[in-house]
Task: inverse folding
């Protein structure tokens, strides 16, 4: 007997770019009928109807697509609760860290009828991460700071997938002692911790004035630039990000 909770969803609305990429990566793209405004990859997702951006999701736009299930992240708890009250099935998937990212891939596989493909993708990503981590372990540990926001200085704290990837790259996250996932970081503290390597989203504003002019990593050019969409979202490309971190950091170790 098939459990009712495992009835396959034929129409899916995704409210997060990482979940959208996961769905397409496991072959469930044809089931996706709507996405959030930031779901720009792959090309098939970019052509789908948009239901608004993360906290500004339009419940009316979602309901008009008649979804069997709406998938979102904890950041969208309010809209997910509204949709649940409207009688729509919702799934809250926490992709803050790598373990949650893998769990989301597996769950999306069950929801979409692509459980086998999801398990296979999970295994492929884990194998790549393990190989890259072993490679990085042969180099000395270096300190690093990831700027997820430049003008409004923010970083990745403990419990994020970025913190996980830094550890695998044998890089010590100078913000890894902070309990918040995406905390603001003071300019004074950044200068004081003097990270050996700076990781930035690309594109980014020019690093002019304070605090950048006082940071050795900037003056020495010890900067690893990673495409903004790759760096700032989890999903099926996390091994690609780790590869860029390992290769970039290797230049100065």
Result:
């Amino acid at each position: 007997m098939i459990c009712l909770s495992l009835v396959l969803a034929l129409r899916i609305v995704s409210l997060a770019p990482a979940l959208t990429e996961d769905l397409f990566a496991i072959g469930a793209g044809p089931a996706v009928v709507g996405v959030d405004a930031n779901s720009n990859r792959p090309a098939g997702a970019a052509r789908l109807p948009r239901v608004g951006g993360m906290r500004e999701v339009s419940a009316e736009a979602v309901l008009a697509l008649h979804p069997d299930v709406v998938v979102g992240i904890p950041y969208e708890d309010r809209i997910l609760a509204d949709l649940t009250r409207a009688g729509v099935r919702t799934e809250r998937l926490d992709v803050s860290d790598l373990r949650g990212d893998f769990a989301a891939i597996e769950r999306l596989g069950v929801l979409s009828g692509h459980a086998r493909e999801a398990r296979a993708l999970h295994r492929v990503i884990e194998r790549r991460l393990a190989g890259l981590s072993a490679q990085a372990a042969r180099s000395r540990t270096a300190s690093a700071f990831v700027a997820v926001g430049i003008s409004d200085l923010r970083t990745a704290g403990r419990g994020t997938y970025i913190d996980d990837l830094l550890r695998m790259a044998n890089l010590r996250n100078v913000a890894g002692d902070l309990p918040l996932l995406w905390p603001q970081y003071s300019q004074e503290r950044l200068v004081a911790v003097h990270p050996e390597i700076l990781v930035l989203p690309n594109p980014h504003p020019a690093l002019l004035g304070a605090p950048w002019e006082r940071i050795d990593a900037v003056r020495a050019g010890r900067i690893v630039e990673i495409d903004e969409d790759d760096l700032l979202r989890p999903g099926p490309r996390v091994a690609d990000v780790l590869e860029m971190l390992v290769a970039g950091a290797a230049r100065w170790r």
User: Anything to note?
Assistant: The longest helix spans residues 115-136.
